[in-house]
Amino acid sequence: LGGGMRQVGILAAAAQVALRETPSKLPQDHENAKLFAEGVNAISPLLSVDMASVETNLVYISVLPPLTAATVAEECTKRGVLVLAIGPQTVRAVCHHQVSREKTLRALEVLKEVMLENGSV
Length: 121
Description:
The chain has four helices and four strands. The chain has helices at residues 8-21, 26-43, 69-78, 101-117, and strands at 47-48, 58-63, 84-87, 90-94. Strands 1-2-4-3 form a four-stranded antiparallel beta sheet. A hairpin with a 2-residue loop joins strand 3 and strand 4. 26% of the residues are buried.
């Protein structure tokens, strides 16, 4: 943002909207994260999520060799599902207010497609 930011009111307005409108949506985000995590665990033995770690809207997926997190993330991204490889064998997925239950289920379908394509289901 820089020290020369003069239009700070624009940023303040965005923060105000976020604080006013987003907290009520957090429970749905957390629900979707749990749904996603459970679905990941059902796709392939090469993918796993520690369900005890899914307390918020973040899901960390462990990817076993021969697959890598980078491959999984790249293939999901090609299909419109944005996840991030945060290590050689870990993918992070985030559920937020723009990710509905339907989009969560679609993300699981995409992940299954990726695993099928890689012969890992």
